[in-house]
């Protein structure tokens, strides 16, 4: 990556405020989906769709992995991390490479 090669990789990928806000929203949606699925609600089975759509397209591709709940969490986490890195990159480019 260009710009600040002395900055750690995680800070370059996820050190942007927009990327961190997106990761927080994805985490909140995932917690909400688990809480909604735990209840005795007929519509709770669709609660898991929201975090998957928020972290698409990577999460949709990763859902092809077998494994149930761990695969769901892995798919949403992978999708959120990839999308957050893209958000941070776009934010840096739109600001002209400045911090």
UniProtKB/TrEMBL annotation:
Name of protein: Integral membrane protein
Keyword Isomerase: no
Transmembrane residue ranges: 20-39, 46-65, 71-90
UniProt key word Repeat: no
Keyword annotations from UniProtKB, A to Z: Membrane, Transmembrane, Transmembrane helix
Record-linked InterPro entries: DUF7942 (IPR057702)
């Amino acid at each position: 990556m260009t710009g600040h090669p002395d900055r750690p990789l995680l800070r370059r990928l996820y050190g942007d405020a927009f990327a961190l806000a997106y990761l927080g929203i994805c985490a909140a949606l995932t917690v909400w989906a688990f809480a909604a699925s735990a209840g005795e609600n007929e519509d709770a089975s669709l609660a898991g769709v929201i975090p998957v759509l928020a972290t698409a397209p990577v999460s949709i591709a990763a859902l092809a992995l077998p494994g149930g709940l761990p695969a769901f969490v892995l798919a949403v986490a992978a999708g959120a991390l990839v999308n957050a890195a893209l958000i941070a990159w776009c934010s840096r480019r739109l600001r002209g490479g400045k911090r």
